[in-house]
Amino acid sequence: MGMSAEEEDSSSPKDEEWPEVEKAEKLARGAALKWASGVFYHPDKLEGLGHYWRRETQRNNSIQSRLKSTVQSYLEGVSAGLEQLCMATDEVQSVCQDLGTVQWNLLGSAECFQNLEQLRAVVTDHVQLGLVVQSLPQLVSVHELLSQTLHLLHDQHLLEAHAGLMVLERLRDNTLSQLHHSDLLNAQDLDIVESYFSGLQKVNEELTRQLWNIIGRSMKLVHEDPALFVSAVRIIEREENIDALFLDTRSHHFLPPGRPKSWRQKFYQVLQETITVAHFQASHADMKGPGMARHLAALQSNILAELCVVKDLMVQCCPVHYNIVNVCTIMYHQGLSSHLQDILSWDLDKQEIFIVLDWVLHVYHSPEMMSHPDLLPEVDVSTLGPLVPPEVVDHMERKYVVKVRGNMTEWMQRTLEVEYKEWFREEEPEMDHQGFFQSALPVIIMQMLNENIRVASLITDSLQQKVYTMAMDELETFLASSSICSLHPNGDLLSEPREIPTSLKAALDRTQKKACQLLLEELLVDLQPLYMQLPSRKWLSGSQLVNSTCEVIDKYVRDFARVRKPIFKLLLSESEHLVMSQYLRALMQKKLVCKSEEERSQFSHRLLQDATQLGDLFHSLGLDKSEQTIEVIVALQELIRLKDPALLSLEVLGFVTKYPDISDEHVSALLDLRGDVSKEVRNMVMEMMAQNPQALPENYQPIFSNILVPGPELPFCLRKGKCA
């Protein structure tokens, strides 16, 4: 179904004014078409067309009736509204006319209002007089109340005195409040009121003096007169409530003079000052010697006793919100922390440092003090942090180690001086049960160091480690390896044993070698006169020289036997090496050069006999043949005994292979002893050595490295003549 052009034209204005109507109409048409197509899709449905027509006609008639009724009601309301608007317009016009008349009348009466200022002044005076009349009975009694209140204070009737004080303050505050709200308060009136109530200041001062005196004696009063302490606390709480009242209403109320008093805060402050003055004020001079231990013991006893009083008695005298046990615990903890840090800033000796650190780290938290059964569980300092900061503890540990080192160094020096004098007495040194010479010095030093390490372990593991490291350093010049073991921390000190530091091992090795060197120098002094005769014709002819050498060696080694095995073995080995090197050095002086084959045979025979006798001697003294260096003399005699010089190259090669540290100069000096080595043979030997350089084997014991070859003698020349 389409719409005609007239219908489209007629709908355009409506569509522009009511777009919702157009949309609703389209939706309705679409719904109708959908319904019709569904109902009349089959031919047999056309028989019910009349029924559908009648039903839809009735529905449309009903809808139209409701629409007409609604529109009629709407039109009636609009009509009534228009009538009311017309009536309101008339009334507004009437009111405007009346206001104009009033305005005109007021302008004509302006001069009359000026005469009302006098009436306003009278009203003001009336208000002031009314306030005075209302307050007059109380104001007259002010001085009497002040006198009564002071009398009550002198008799220590604190609650009654404070009640009188509150009455006086309330009267003053009400007077000032009334003046404040009436906008009549000025500087002159304020001065008058304050002057009249000036006695309140004296009452306040006297009351606070007594209050803080009571709080300062609280630990004693809760025992002897708890009622007095409770009265002081009640007064403080009264004032706190008054402070809270004025602070809560200060946005629309004035704040009286002296408010807020904050007496509860002052209560805590006085309590803290009392604790500080009673326990935490002392000078270093008062703690010299045993004074430090006495002071800390007094702190331990007094703080424990007072906290027990707080926990058992004071807590019953204070309101719950005071949390007095926790507050006092914090006060003692913080005051003690500050006091101890002041003490640690002094120049303490090692004993004082030890006492303070032990008290801080062990006594304070122990069951003898803050973990005492009488304090638990109410007192708990575990949440308050360390009594002394860790960095301060570490600094004091280092300071303690410095003090211990200084005392130790001084003590060791004096002990060493005494020991040094002891060894020069005309008596043999002490011997142990095995017959070894011994000195009490190492034992004494080890005991002293071990005791210092043990004492340090009583404080902290870190302090023990610091002292242990320091002890290792100090031992570098005093102790032997066998003594170090007693310093190794065992289960009583540290959990794991430790190795001797490499630096200490090196120092101990140097010390041992130095001691051995001093003894060997004495041996060398006695051997030098004998070696001065070597080699010589006399030496070739008999064994007296080596016999004398063996006697000197035997005497010294028997003295060496008085020391323990490790050092004795070292001395024995070094003595054998000294005898060998001095023997070779004497041979290289070239005091004797063989002139014939017979002398070379005699020379080699003497060398072999000397080497055998010396080797047997050292073997009998405890040095195994494999550990001896005397064998080099045996090898040397074979070099001398060789009959054919042409074979020297091979013999020297074998010698150099066995003793690779020998130099060309050594070989040349030894060849000179034969007396039959030509220049060609010598050059051949040197060339052979150059072609066969030798590398030193690992762990090779030097033989020739420490033997200096004497330089060639300079020719003797006369002036203006040829050199001889």
UniProtKB/TrEMBL annotation:
Source organism, top-level taxon: Eukaryota
Compositionally biased intervals (Basic and acidic residues): 11-23
InterPro entries per the UniProt record, alphabetical: EXOC3/Sec6, EXOC3/Sec6_C
Biased composition (Acidic residues): 1-10
The keyword Disulfide bond is annotated on this UniProt entry: no
Region (Disordered): 1-23
Keywords, ordered alphabetically: Exocytosis
GO biological process assignments: exocyst localization; exocytosis
GO cellular component, one term: exocyst
Gene3D superfamilies tied to this protein: 1.10.357.50, Exocyst complex component Sec6, C-terminal domain
Single GO molecular function: SNARE binding
Family to which this protein belongs: Belongs to the SEC6 family.
PANTHER family membership: EXOCYST COMPLEX COMPONENT 3-LIKE PROTEIN, EXOCYST COMPLEX COMPONENT SEC6-RELATED
Name of the protein in question: Exocyst complex component 3-like protein isoform X2
